[in-house]
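Memo to structure team: turn this sequence into structure tokens by end of day. - J.P.
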Amino acid sequence: MAIVLNELEGEFSDRVAFLEVNADQETMLNTLLHVSTLPTTILFHHGKVLYSHRGFWPEEQLQKVLEDISAS
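Reply from structure team:
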């Protein structure tokens, strides 16, 4: 996922903030966000979870979701 996210970060950096969390170090955050599988990608908008995706997320699908979110 890191390669996909790095590519999309370059494209969306003016509209979307990308953050990476080390799940091994942030066990409380894992619990709060119900992260049980890695990788997990969670998209927030104004502090609310819009999407949570477990496992690999193909670049084209994630790009579409980011385009939809950033256009609103």
